[in-house]
Structure formats: structure tokens, C-alpha cells
């Protein structure tokens, strides 16, 4: 892996992209134009024409190669492939460790969900369980204000309903897509029903101090959810790690159902189907599922003839599969 240089966009040496005629020119901070070789390197980054405020690192081994603002006003980055590879490896190792510690964390969640009332511990347990089962984005006030989209912490009472032992969630999520999610969990049903007297516009994951029964509900925040995850698991995990785990498990379970197939064409179709399965769980595209959420070791294991043992608890089976893949790589 090449040695990378850490840079600070817009501060470290680099080029600014400027419109010139039907194309672009690239100027250094001193006003000089990028040379032919530099221009070729920059164009190979395939920076979208719609990006504005574009900055390109001068160093070809910079960990961030380019930055810009897309048409929606969001800051976007082009990372060095080696940096992405390193970050992905750390992400999937963290996901594997989360799979190891979830059983103990779930026990505390079940106990707190079974409690009476609507205290803070129960609200955090409900948020944890919803992440665990539904792999929602954690959400935040900034997304709600900027795009009117919701995630876990900004869901309202009106976004949830109960039918038997099912909790149904219906809300506009990232990108404006309408999400419909069903969660089969008696503890979550009890938590949602405990808010039956709350206003429909109140936050779903909210709590009331026992000493202030007449006080309004207090909403759980994204930072509180992530702090609670770390406290329950004893690891440096966040809500996003649940999405990585759910996406990888969905892909692994799909491949286990397919079993090793005889032809390369059939195996390729099975792998494509695995990315589709992951995208359906995560409510995004197969391309994003492949690039960001599905551990490539699961696919490599399948191509080598190894799949998830479906007779075991899913997380334990996934850990065993990934350990087997690690041993196979070392051999």
C-alpha cells in the first residue's frame, strides 16, 4: 500500500477548478496553470462537471484527492483508493466485532424494554432495538431542516403504528424515498404503545422523567444514541455499524440460500442478487450496497465454496465465516 500524505482541503497545496469555455482549467494558488501531466491526472479523477468550489490536491498520494460541492449543496470527496481500502478494512473489522458483542447488548435491551413507563433508559433501549432490527439511518436535525427527511432520532409518533406484535414505520428518508419498515418485537410494541397519549407530532424515541410527569417529552438525540451504543457494547461503534452489519448479513444469507453454483455465470448472478438483497434491507441501491456496506470477504468466501451456516445464530455464523476467510487468505 502506498504511503499517503494527509492533507487539509482548501488549505494544503492544490488546484482550483475554473470554468473556461466549454471545459475547465486548473490553477494553483500562485495563479499558475496545471501542466499537461497534472491536467491528465486531474481529469482521471472524473470530478463531476456540476460540482462547484472544486479543490484538487497537488500531491498525487494525498489521502483526499479532490473536494467539491454537488448540485444539492453537499460537500463531496474523492479519496485515494488506498485510503478507501484502509478505511473499509477497519470498518468491516469493527462490524465483525459488533457481531461478537451484540448478544450481551441485546440482553440489557430486552430487560429495559420490558420496564414500565417511558423513562430515558427504555427510550434508548427502543432506539437500539430499532437500529438492530431495522438498520435505519440515525438521522439528525440538520437533515430534517435541510431536506425534510427523517431518520431514527427524528421519527414522530405519527410515523409508527402497531398491528398485533408488529411495529410499522412509515416515513420519508434520505433522498425523499418513502420507507415502510416492519419490526416484529414485543418490546418495541410495548414502547410505542406507551406513547399512545402523546401528540402525533412528538418524537417517537422520547422520554419523560418520573419526577416530572406533567413535563413534556424529551427527544433522544443522535449523539445520545451513539453514546448508548458504545456504553452497551463496550466498543467504539456507531449507528452506521448496524447498517454495515445488516447489509453484510443480508448478502451472506442470500448467498447461503444459493449455495455454491457450478458455473461462473451462475455464481456472478448470485453475487449480484446478494447486493440487491442488501440494498433492499438498507433502502439504497445495489451499487451503494456493494461499495459501502457489504464486506467483500463474504463474496470471496462464496466464490471459494464457503457460505453462512444457517443453522447458527446469524451474527455468530457471520463471524465464523469471516474468520474462515481470514485463515484462507493467510494460507
From TrEMBL:
Its EC number is 5.6.2.1. Residues 83-291 form the DNA topoisomerase I catalytic core eukaryotic-type domain. Belongs to the type IB topoisomerase family. The keyword DNA-binding applies. The gene is topA. GO terms for biological process: DNA topological change. Pfam families: Top1B_N_bact, Topoisom_I. This is DNA topoisomerase. Coiled coil: none annotated. One of its GO terms (molecular function) is DNA binding. It comes from Agromyces mediolanus. Residues 23-70 form the DNA topoisomerase IB N-terminal domain. Residues 1-22 are annotated as: Disordered. The keyword NADP does not apply. It catalyses: ATP-independent breakage of single-stranded DNA, followed by passage and rejoining. PROSITE patterns: TOPO_IB_2. Keywords: DNA-binding, Isomerase, Topoisomerase. InterPro entries: DNA_brk_join_enz, DNA_topo_I_N_sf, Top1B_N_bact, TopoI, TopoI_cat_a-hlx-sub_euk, TopoI_cat_euk.
Amino acid at each position: 500500500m502506498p504511503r499517503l500524505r494527509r492533507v487539509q482541503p482548501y488549505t494544503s497545496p492544490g488546484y482550483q477548478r475554473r470554468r473556461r469555455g466549454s471545459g475547465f482549467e486548473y490553477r494553483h494558488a500562485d495563479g499558475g496553470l496545471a501542466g499537461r501531466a497534472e491536467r491528465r491526472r486531474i481529469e482521471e479523477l472524473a470530478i463531476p462537471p456540476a460540482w462547484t468550489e472544486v479543490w484538487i490536491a497537488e500531491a498525487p498520494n494525498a489521502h483526499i484527492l479532490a473536494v467539491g460541492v454537488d448540485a444539492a449543496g453537499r460537500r463531496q470527496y474523492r479519496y485515494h483508493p488506498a485510503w478507501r481500502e484502509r478505511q473499509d478494512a477497519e470498518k468491516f473489522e469493527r462490524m465483525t466485532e459488533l457481531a461478537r458483542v451484540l448478544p450481551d447488548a441485546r440482553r440489557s435491551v430486552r430487560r429495559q424494554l420490558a420496564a414500565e413507563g417511558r423513562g430515558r433508559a427504555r427510550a434508548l433501549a427502543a432506539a437500539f432495538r430499532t437500529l438492530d432490527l431495522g438498520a435505519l439511518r440515525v438521522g439528525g436535525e440538520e437533515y430534517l431542516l435541510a431536506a425534510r427527511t427523517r431518520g431514527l432520532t427524528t421519527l414522530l409518533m405519527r410515523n409508527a403504528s402497531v398491528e398485533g406484535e408488529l411495529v410499522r414505520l412509515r416515513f420519508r428518508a434520505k433522498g425523499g424515498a418513502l420507507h415502510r419498515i416492519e419490526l416484529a418485537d414485543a418490546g418495541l410494541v410495548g414502547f410505542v404503545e406507551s406513547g399512545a397519549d402523546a401528540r402525533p407530532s412528538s418524537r417517537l424515541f422520547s422520554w419523560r422523567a418520573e419526577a416530572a410527569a406533567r413535563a413534556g417529552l424529551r427527544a433522544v438525540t443522535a449523539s445520545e444514541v451513539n453514546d448508548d451504543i458504545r456504553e452497551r457494547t463496550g466498543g467504539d461503534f456507531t449507528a452506521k455499524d448496524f447498517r454495515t452489519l445488516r447489509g453484510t448479513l443480508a448478502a451472506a444469507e442470500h448467498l447461503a440460500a444459493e449455495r455454491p453454483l457450478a458455473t461462473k455465470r451462475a455464481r456472478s448472478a448470485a453475487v449480484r442478487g446478494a447486493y440487491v438483497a442488501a440494498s433492499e434491507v438498507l433502502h439504497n441501491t445495489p451499487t451503494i450496497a456493494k461499495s459501502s456496506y457489504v464486506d467483500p470477504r463474504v463474496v470471496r468466501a462464496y466464490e471459494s465454496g464457503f457460505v453462512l451456516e444457517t443453522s447458527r445464530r446469524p451474527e455468530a455464523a457471520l463471524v465464523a465465516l469471516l474468520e474462515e476467510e481470514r485463515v484462507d487468505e493467510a494460507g
